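Re: [help] complex structure
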Amino acid sequence: MKVLFIFIDGLGIRGTSADNPVNKAVCPNLCELIEANGCLIDACLDMPGLPQSATGQASLYTGVNAARHMGRHLEGFPGPTLRSLLNEDNLFLKLHRRGLRVKFADAYMADRIEEIEARRFKSVTTVMGLTCPQVFSFREDMLANQAVFHDITRESLLAKGYSGPVVTPAKAAEHLIQLAITHDFTLFEFFQSDLAGHSSSLEEAVACLQTLDAFIGPLAAMARQANLLVILTSDHGNIEDMSVHSHTINPVPLVVFGPEAEAFTVGVRNLTDVTPRIMRTIMQ
Ligand SMILES: [Zn+2]
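Output below.
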């Protein structure tokens, strides 16, 4: 079975409200998937305070409650304690050790692994990727349409001197599907949603969700045709409540469709349940 994991940073679920852009008018494909194939899971991890990215993502990709491990929710980039938790074991390593072909589809604007290693600030997924460096995608992979830039269309690269082609969300979806059908496990991480959520601009949040939705729609259709198991989730709420600058304690969606999807979500409670379910499902 081939698995495509879509990670969307800062996507929570909350009731209808004028300051909640996660609705059918803005992102019909995403809302439909959540309604038809989704359940809600807890991102607060039994710890007080607002959930944050470093501990949320580490929990998601290790199956260990990283917030409890740290004694608090940790934002941004993982420090030494979380890095050592990730270095010890993580989803990429678990899959790789079982001989599976793993791909991190997000293109790094780098030419060599050493450039990624040298980065001062490393996200959870970068730390995880460095434990099995063959998963990374580079600039040349993106230019060969064998990787997807994290903003989906590459448009955010234009301001940084990029002069290559931009792509439509539907084209980017095609590129991602090609990767997913040639690997056992493919991860795509989208974090513009968290940035838009922090922006306090409803307009920015809507534009971000519209791009995401134009990607998710064709992606879901192609994934069904290719019989992929698709998993979509987040690390904490944010963009669903534009009345606050911060993250939220709202639950996050866990959308699963494709082979073995129904069994996957039974009894899933929070972020720590996702990696064990992936391992159980993919090793069947
Ligand atoms: Zn954030």
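The pocket of zinc ion is lined by residues 10, 53, 194, 198, 238, 247 (CB under 6 Å).
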